Amino acid sequence: MKIKLLLSVLLTIVLFSGCKESKPVNSVKDNYLDFSQRDDQFTGGIKMIPISTPVGEFKVWTKRVGNNPKIKVLLLHGGPGGTHEFFESFDGYFPQESIEYIYYDQLGSYYSDQPNDNRLWTTERFVEEVEQVRKALKLDNTNFYLLGQSWGGILAMEYALKYQKNLKGLIISNMMASAPAYNKYAEEVLGPKLDPKVFTQIKEFEKNKDYSNPKYMELLLNHYYTEHILRFPVAEWPESINRAFKHLNPNVYVYMQGPSEFGITGDATLKDWDITAKLKTLTVPTLSIGAQYDTMDPKHMEWIANEVQNGRFLYCPNGSHCSQYDDQEHYFPGVIQFLKDVDNGTFKKAKS
């Protein structure tokens, strides 16, 4: 009797152990922080990538975070002449979702080479730089997502117009598709919302091209930037943002964008940039992000989402130009959902 009972127990154990669900091996989450099979383990993910330009060879700084064979997000910072430091808030959200992302300082930016040659600062050359970075990092349309914020959004759109075949997804964060439309929004909508005395003073400084006057920057910082760039008191701005502004290359910034965030001013080369007529040629899944208090018109960003062939709009009701900081509640869930939907094949075009 005891022998029969023992055999019965053993048989039950064998049967149920065979039905037990085994833990998946080599999952993305399990291997997300495993650098052991990577050629950048020695440097903690950092690579200085060689770049060929019409005026010589240079190197740009990149740093890869995590491993995910299907989702790799290359981050294009603003400026021009800014740094990857504007994106450091991503560290608080992407790793827990096992999203691989790559920090990248464009040529002329703080952690990369900084040649002093204005012939380099064109959108066309920056597009080719991004393509060289893509190839060096072995990104392709099975995994390559491009996320550009502000000037990085211009660069992302220009890259997609030429190389969308290489992309799995495109994210345009806080950037309109037309510099003249951006200037008009700043002049006719945002400017009049300022204290009339402040707005008059700002326009007087710009009329006289007195951009280096400390009073000019003080007015912008305390009355415009804290409303439309980052909606915290200046004393509460994150250290990463302060570091990014400290590291901004003014030579590149002023040459392309102009001396102020209050529109693209002076002789800036981006002043007449406009690709609104070309957006309809984009077929790659696209997320356009707009924020209520942004320097950019959120209605225009919604229009972008409907103008491209496969677009979605993400609205940040509490955000400004740096909504990756001042409206993380909406920004990151929306970005993460887009990445997962495209990856899962469940992405749907926005309703017109």
UniProtKB/TrEMBL annotation:
InterPro entries per UniProt: AB_hydrolase_1, AB_hydrolase_fold, AB_hydrolase_sf, Peptidase_S33, Pro_imino_pep
Keyword Hydrolase: yes
Keywords annotated in UniProt: Hydrolase, Signal
Leader peptide range in chain numbering: 1-22
Pfam families named among the record's database cross-references: Abhydrolase_1
Membrane-spanning segments: none
Molecular function as annotated in GO: hydrolase activity
UniProt domain AB hydrolase-1: residue ranges: 73-327
UniProt similarity note: Belongs to the peptidase S33 family.
Protein name per Swiss-Prot or TrEMBL: Proline iminopeptidase-family hydrolase
Organism this protein belongs to: Flavobacterium buctense
Lineage: Bacteria, Pseudomonadati, Bacteroidota, Flavobacteriia, Flavobacteriales
